[in-house]
Amino acid sequence: MRLIPNWITLPVLVFLYKPVVRLFPKTVNKDSYVRRVVAASNSYFFKRFVKIPFHKRMLFLPYCLRPKECPTMIDPQKGLQCPDECSVECGLREIRGVARELGYTGSHIVVSGKLHKDKGILRSRDFLVKQIDLNRPGGVVGCLCTKDLRQKYLNPQNLSPNGTLRKNGHSVIPQVVLLANCNCRQSSVDWRYLKDLIQARM
C-alpha cells in the first residue's frame, strides 16, 4: 500500500535529487533514483495522459534502439529516417507504425547531437523541445535512458502540476519508458510495455 501520494512524492524526489547527490555522491544509486522518479511521474500523470486524444500526442524514441545493420539516414530536422524499402527486423519501425496508425501528431527517432556534431544535428533535448514547440501536443511518450533524463530533464523548473517542460513555455503531460541501460550505441527496452503505453486511452 502506498503511504505517500504521488503528487507529494514526485516534486519531493525531483527537488531533492541534486542536493542528495551532492551530499552523498558515492552512496546514491542514480539509476535507481531516476527510476523511482519516473514511476512516481507516470503514476501521477497517467489518468490525464489517457484522456488526451491520439492526434494530440507525440512519441520520441532514441536511436540507440536501432538494429546494428540499420540502413537509416539522419535528417537534421526530422531525426532518424527509415527508408520505405527497409527489410531489417526493427522494433523502432514497428512502434512508429503503431503510433502513426493511431494518429499521433508526430513520432520521431531522436539522434544524439553529441555523437553527430559534424552533421549539424541538434542536441537531443533541443530537438525534442523544438518539435514540441512546433506541434504543441497535449501529451508525450518519451523513451530514454536514466542518464539522459537526470542530466537534461530532472530539474524542478521543468515540473508543474500541469505537466513537464514548463520553463520552455509549453507544458505537456508525460509518460516515460526507461531503457534497460545507458549505452548510447546499443540499448534495449520493454517493447510490450512501450506499445501498451502508446495505445493507452480511456
Task: Please sum up the structure shown.
The chain is of the alpha/beta class and 202 residues long. Helices cover 39% and strands 16% of the residues. The chain has helices spanning 6-23, 30-49, 91-102, 124-135, 146-152, 191-199, and strands at 57-62, 73-75, 79-81, 106-110, 139-144, 159-160, 163-164, 173-178.
Number of strands: 8
Strand content: 15-25%
Distance between the termini: 24 Å
Mean of pLDDT: 88
Overall tally of domains: 1
Strand order within the widest beta sheet? 4-1-5-8
Radius of gyration: 17 Å
Shape: globular
Class derived from helix and strand content: alpha/beta
Tell me the series of helices and strands, N- to C-terminal. Answer: HHEEEHEHEHEEEH
Task: Flag low-confidence runs.
Answer: none
Task: List its salient traits.
single chain, 202 residues, alpha/beta, four-stranded parallel sheet, two-stranded antiparallel sheet, 16% strand, globular
Overall description:
By secondary structure, the protein is α/β, with parallel strands linked by helices. The chain has one domain (6-199). The chain is built from 6 helices and 8 strands, in the order H-H-E-E-E-H-E-H-E-H-E-E-E-H. Strand 6 (159-160) and strand 7 form a beta hairpin. Helix 3 runs parallel beside helix 6 (191-199). It starts with 5 loop residues before the first helix and ends with a helix. The mean pLDDT is 88.
